[in-house]
# Entry
Amino acid sequence: MQSSRPQRIENLSWHVARACDGGSCVRIATNGTEFFIGDSKVPGGSAVLAYSRDEWMAFVDGVKRGDFDHLG
# Structure
């Protein structure tokens, strides 16, 4: 995992969960090779985390398996 600020962050197409009501939500974007995670409350000023496709897929698989259920 690396924290980064993509050079053209404004050109990314950000997405939030359907359940997000405009409040405190995580936003996700991809440029095709990396996945970016940011805070929807502060779109222009928050830190953005960047992950490779393999890292992102490992995380998604872990969520689906319930690896993080004990955190919520």
Summary: The chain has one domain: 2-63.
